[in-house]
Write a structure and sequence with these properties.
With 377 residues, the protein is an alpha/beta fold. The chain is elongated, with a radius of gyration of 23 Å. It contains 12 helices and 14 strands. The protein binds NADP nicotinamide-adenine-dinucleotide phosphate. NADP nicotinamide-adenine-dinucleotide phosphate is lined by residues 166-167, 174-175, 179, 181, 184, 205-209, 212-213, 232-235, 237, 284, 287-288, 306-311, 314, 339, 343.
Length: 377
Amino acid sequence: MAFDAFDSAAMQRALELARRGEGLVEPNPMVGAVITAGGPGDGGGPSRTIVAEGWHERFGAAHAEAAAIAAAGGLARGGTLYVTLEPCCHQGKTPPCTAAIVAAGIRRVVVAAGDPFPAVDGRGLDELRAAGILVETGLHEPEASRLTAPFRKLVATGKPWLIAKWAMSLDGRVATRSRESRWISSEESRAIVHRLRARVDAILVGIGTALADDPLLTARPPGPRSPLRIVLDNRARLPPESRLVTTARETPLLVAVGADAPPDRCSGLAAAGAEVWQCPDLDPGVRLESLLEELGSRRLTNLLCEGGPTLLGSLFERGCVDEAWTFIAPKVIGGEAAAAAVAGRGVAAPADAPPVDVERVERPGGDVFVRGLVRSR
Ligand SMILES: NC(=O)c1ccc[n+]([C@@H]2O[C@H](COP(=O)([O-])OP(=O)(O)OC[C@H]3O[C@@H](n4cnc5c(N)ncnc54)[C@H](OP(=O)(O)O)[C@@H]3O)[C@@H](O)[C@H]2O)c1
């Protein structure tokens, strides 16, 4: 399909609007929409102006298309709707958007990316075409698909999108030889992590990190979401006096234990307000996969793993990591006993290492922050 510069700018605006829903709409996808008067058939002129905007503001609220149509009122008639995701055609928490688009008299719909949700998956586009609306797809598709990547992963695999985060020295150490990691990164870097925590559904750490650092794993200051805190702890070693356990009644805590975890320790954790989730499988890798499936079945879309190296090693080895957030502090820790960021077996040849498509590089407080998509091998 041939799109012009006006089409491109309108869809970019819709993508911008969609991002406003980050942390507020999950497990739904972020979606943005704009409505313009007129279309290319009108000769392009000044009649092609944006008359209304909308975005999916929070879970359960109006969809972006419905919000834009409501804002446009009668101006939608004969106009073009630009929307970042295929309009829905089923009754969910809100009525189908396809019906609202037809009723509004919109003449042309431009869609960035399809909706893989089984109840939609192309049917939204079919319904619009059947109603005589001109439907065009694929404008800024890569950006729109990236925006909804966690939603797409959950729909496709039943598992959450996994963001692995660590802070390391220039020589790749995440702790000193005495296992201290506070603080390797700058205050500004840590503030970025707190903002990330505030928009994810859950934060995962291994028991090694919980024991070494006694973390709280909350977002400070709080943001749109209050993530579930999860500790992978096969033998239920998490101490009752740890900050995670003593705050379990205010901020949910799930302790994932193995089949052989001592029952008295499990009941102690449960009595303190933690959810004890037991996986019967003896293989740690299978247990990890089962936990991810369990979280997916609860429709948790974004999972942040904050380490440590043993857990990150397991996750990378199984190809479970989707996104990496790495903070590199300009200091050298050194020492054979100081842990490197990712443990496990690692790869034998550099060519076997999963490449990371770098999406952003920043310098928070003098650190180097690299954020990218991990391409699994
Ligand atoms: N700078 C940073 O960004 C950062 C972040 C986090 C941690 N750290 C540092 O890292 C150190 C702790 O690292 P760590 O490697 O010892 O601990 P870890 O990765 O947090 O925890 C490892 C433990 O988790 C449990 N576990 C359960 N299921 C697992 C699975 N499928 N795969 C892997 N582990 C599983 C195992 O103990 P069980 O078998 O008993 O369950 C395992 O020994 C500390 O010094 C901490 O300060 C630094």
